Amino acid sequence: PSVALPPANAGFDYQIGEPYEPPEGVTVVSRDRGSEPAPGLYNLCYVNGFQTQPGEESFWLDEHPDLVLRDGEGTPVLDEDWGEYLLDVGTEAKRAALAAIVGGWIEQCAADGFDAVEIDNLDSYSRSEGLLTEAAAVAFMGSLSAVAHGAGLAIAQKNSAELLDRVAEMGTDFSVAEECNRWSECGDYQEAYG
What we know:
The chain has 194 residues and is of the alpha/beta class. The chain contains five helices and eight strands; from the N terminus they run E-E-E-H-E-E-H-E-H-E-H-E-H. It has helices at residues 57-63, 92-111, 134-150, 167-170, 186-193, and strands at 11-15, 26-32, 42-48, 78-79, 84-85, 116-120, 154-158, 174-176. The strands form two sheets. The protein has a six-stranded parallel beta sheet with strand order 1-2-3-6-7-8, covered by helices on one side. Strands 4-5 form a two-stranded antiparallel ribbon. Strand 4 (78-79) and strand 5 (84-85) form a beta hairpin. Helix 2 runs parallel beside helix 3. It is globular and about 50 Å long.
Protein backbone atom coordinates (compact mmCIF):
# COMPACT_ATOMS: atom_id res chain seq x y z
CA PRO A 1 0.00 0.00 0.00
CA SER A 2 1.11 3.54 -0.71
CA VAL A 3 1.03 5.49 2.53
CA ALA A 4 2.77 8.71 3.52
CA LEU A 5 5.51 8.19 6.10
CA PRO A 6 6.54 10.91 8.54
CA PRO A 7 9.33 13.14 7.23
CA ALA A 8 12.86 12.20 8.33
CA ASN A 9 14.51 14.20 11.12
CA ALA A 10 11.30 16.13 11.78
CA GLY A 11 10.50 18.12 14.89
CA PHE A 12 8.08 15.94 16.89
CA ASP A 13 5.56 16.83 19.59
CA TYR A 14 3.76 14.21 21.66
CA GLN A 15 0.35 15.63 22.65
CA ILE A 16 -1.40 12.73 24.39
CA GLY A 17 -4.05 14.22 26.66
CA GLU A 18 -5.02 17.77 25.75
CA PRO A 19 -3.94 19.04 22.32
CA TYR A 20 -2.35 22.50 22.06
CA GLU A 21 -0.75 24.70 19.40
CA PRO A 22 2.46 22.88 18.39
CA PRO A 23 5.69 24.79 19.08
CA GLU A 24 7.60 26.34 16.19
CA GLY A 25 9.72 23.82 14.30
CA VAL A 26 7.35 20.92 14.94
CA THR A 27 6.18 19.17 11.76
CA VAL A 28 4.98 15.85 13.25
CA VAL A 29 2.48 15.62 16.09
CA SER A 30 0.80 12.70 17.87
CA ARG A 31 -2.65 13.23 19.38
CA ASP A 32 -5.37 11.07 20.94
CA ARG A 33 -7.89 9.55 18.55
CA GLY A 34 -10.60 11.84 19.93
CA SER A 35 -8.62 14.98 19.10
CA GLU A 36 -8.49 16.98 15.87
CA PRO A 37 -5.32 16.72 13.74
CA ALA A 38 -3.03 19.76 13.77
CA PRO A 39 -3.52 21.70 10.50
CA GLY A 40 -0.65 21.53 8.02
CA LEU A 41 1.41 18.97 9.96
CA TYR A 42 1.97 15.22 9.72
CA ASN A 43 -0.46 13.82 12.30
CA LEU A 44 -0.27 10.54 14.20
CA CYS A 45 -3.48 9.25 15.77
CA TYR A 46 -2.85 7.58 19.15
CA VAL A 47 -4.89 4.40 19.62
CA ASN A 48 -4.62 2.17 22.70
CA GLY A 49 -5.09 -1.06 20.77
CA PHE A 50 -4.12 -3.71 23.31
CA GLN A 51 -5.47 -2.27 26.59
CA THR A 52 -8.46 -0.25 27.76
CA GLN A 53 -8.11 3.51 27.68
CA PRO A 54 -8.82 5.26 31.03
CA GLY A 55 -12.47 6.28 31.11
CA GLU A 56 -13.53 3.49 28.74
CA GLU A 57 -13.67 0.63 31.26
CA SER A 58 -17.46 0.33 31.17
CA PHE A 59 -17.45 0.14 27.35
CA TRP A 60 -15.28 -2.95 27.63
CA LEU A 61 -16.46 -4.53 30.90
CA ASP A 62 -20.20 -3.97 30.27
CA GLU A 63 -20.51 -4.14 26.48
CA HIS A 64 -17.61 -6.45 25.54
CA PRO A 65 -16.75 -8.43 28.70
CA ASP A 66 -15.59 -11.44 26.66
CA LEU A 67 -12.86 -9.34 25.00
CA VAL A 68 -11.18 -8.37 28.29
CA LEU A 69 -8.39 -10.76 29.35
CA ARG A 70 -9.29 -12.70 32.50
CA ASP A 71 -7.25 -14.84 34.87
CA GLY A 72 -8.16 -18.33 36.09
CA GLU A 73 -10.72 -16.90 38.54
CA GLY A 74 -12.37 -14.82 35.82
CA THR A 75 -10.97 -11.54 37.15
CA PRO A 76 -9.96 -8.97 34.50
CA VAL A 77 -6.16 -8.69 34.19
CA LEU A 78 -4.99 -5.16 35.02
CA ASP A 79 -1.84 -3.32 33.97
CA GLU A 80 -1.17 -1.94 37.45
CA ASP A 81 1.17 0.82 36.23
CA TRP A 82 -1.48 2.47 34.06
CA GLY A 83 -4.75 1.16 35.54
CA GLU A 84 -5.72 -0.33 32.18
CA TYR A 85 -7.28 -3.73 31.57
CA LEU A 86 -5.61 -5.95 28.99
CA LEU A 87 -7.62 -6.90 25.91
CA ASP A 88 -7.74 -10.60 25.06
CA VAL A 89 -5.93 -11.10 21.73
CA GLY A 90 -5.34 -14.78 22.58
CA THR A 91 -7.51 -16.43 19.92
CA GLU A 92 -8.22 -15.77 16.27
CA ALA A 93 -11.93 -15.18 17.03
CA LYS A 94 -11.17 -12.64 19.74
CA ARG A 95 -8.58 -10.89 17.56
CA ALA A 96 -11.20 -10.61 14.81
CA ALA A 97 -13.78 -9.16 17.21
CA LEU A 98 -11.23 -6.70 18.62
CA ALA A 99 -10.04 -5.75 15.12
CA ALA A 100 -13.61 -4.80 14.24
CA ILE A 101 -13.73 -2.36 17.19
CA VAL A 102 -10.16 -1.02 17.12
CA GLY A 103 -10.26 -1.05 13.32
CA GLY A 104 -13.29 1.23 13.47
CA TRP A 105 -11.24 3.68 15.54
CA ILE A 106 -8.41 3.49 12.98
CA GLU A 107 -10.85 4.17 10.14
CA GLN A 108 -12.21 7.14 12.11
CA CYS A 109 -8.65 8.47 12.44
CA ALA A 110 -8.43 8.39 8.64
CA ALA A 111 -11.83 10.08 8.28
CA ASP A 112 -10.71 12.79 10.73
CA GLY A 113 -7.68 13.60 8.57
CA PHE A 114 -4.80 11.90 10.37
CA ASP A 115 -1.84 10.59 8.33
CA ALA A 116 -0.93 7.60 10.49
CA VAL A 117 -1.80 5.66 13.62
CA GLU A 118 0.37 4.56 16.51
CA ILE A 119 -0.98 1.53 18.35
CA ASP A 120 -0.04 1.47 22.02
CA ASN A 121 0.69 -1.47 24.32
CA LEU A 122 1.89 -3.98 21.75
CA ASP A 123 3.94 -5.43 24.63
CA SER A 124 0.90 -6.07 26.85
CA TYR A 125 1.53 -9.82 26.49
CA SER A 126 4.55 -9.27 28.77
CA ARG A 127 2.14 -8.08 31.51
CA SER A 128 -0.49 -10.79 30.89
CA GLU A 129 0.61 -13.19 33.65
CA GLY A 130 1.58 -15.64 30.89
CA LEU A 131 -1.94 -15.69 29.41
CA LEU A 132 -1.02 -14.05 26.09
CA THR A 133 1.82 -14.81 23.69
CA GLU A 134 4.10 -12.65 21.61
CA ALA A 135 2.74 -14.46 18.52
CA ALA A 136 -0.84 -13.42 19.37
CA ALA A 137 0.23 -9.77 19.75
CA VAL A 138 2.08 -9.87 16.43
CA ALA A 139 -0.93 -11.43 14.70
CA PHE A 140 -3.27 -8.77 16.09
CA MET A 141 -0.89 -6.00 15.02
CA GLY A 142 -0.90 -7.49 11.52
CA SER A 143 -4.71 -7.25 11.46
CA LEU A 144 -4.61 -3.61 12.54
CA SER A 145 -1.96 -2.82 9.91
CA ALA A 146 -4.24 -4.22 7.21
CA VAL A 147 -7.07 -1.96 8.41
CA ALA A 148 -4.79 1.10 8.55
CA HIS A 149 -3.39 0.49 5.07
CA GLY A 150 -6.88 -0.11 3.73
CA ALA A 151 -7.84 3.31 5.11
CA GLY A 152 -4.77 4.97 3.57
CA LEU A 153 -2.89 5.39 6.85
CA ALA A 154 0.68 4.49 7.76
CA ILE A 155 0.95 2.53 11.02
CA ALA A 156 3.62 2.70 13.71
CA GLN A 157 5.03 0.05 15.98
CA LYS A 158 5.03 1.64 19.44
CA ASN A 159 8.05 0.64 21.55
CA SER A 160 8.65 -3.15 21.94
CA ALA A 161 12.16 -3.35 20.47
CA GLU A 162 12.10 -7.10 21.17
CA LEU A 163 9.65 -7.45 18.25
CA LEU A 164 11.75 -5.65 15.63
CA ASP A 165 12.59 -8.97 13.95
CA ARG A 166 8.85 -9.43 13.31
CA VAL A 167 8.17 -6.15 11.46
CA ALA A 168 7.28 -7.98 8.23
CA GLU A 169 4.64 -10.06 10.04
CA MET A 170 3.21 -6.99 11.77
CA GLY A 171 3.09 -4.94 8.57
CA THR A 172 4.16 -1.77 10.40
CA ASP A 173 5.71 1.14 8.49
CA PHE A 174 7.73 3.02 11.13
CA SER A 175 8.13 3.16 14.90
CA VAL A 176 7.42 5.46 17.81
CA ALA A 177 10.06 4.68 20.41
CA GLU A 178 9.58 6.61 23.63
CA GLU A 179 12.86 5.88 25.41
CA CYS A 180 15.20 4.35 22.85
CA ASN A 181 18.14 6.47 24.09
CA ARG A 182 17.61 5.33 27.66
CA TRP A 183 17.64 1.66 26.65
CA SER A 184 20.23 2.03 23.82
CA GLU A 185 17.69 0.80 21.26
CA CYS A 186 17.55 3.70 18.76
CA GLY A 187 19.96 1.97 16.38
CA ASP A 188 17.83 -1.18 16.49
CA TYR A 189 14.74 0.77 15.41
CA GLN A 190 16.72 2.49 12.64
CA GLU A 191 18.02 -0.84 11.42
CA ALA A 192 14.49 -2.21 11.21
CA TYR A 193 12.76 0.84 9.74
CA GLY A 194 15.45 3.01 8.19
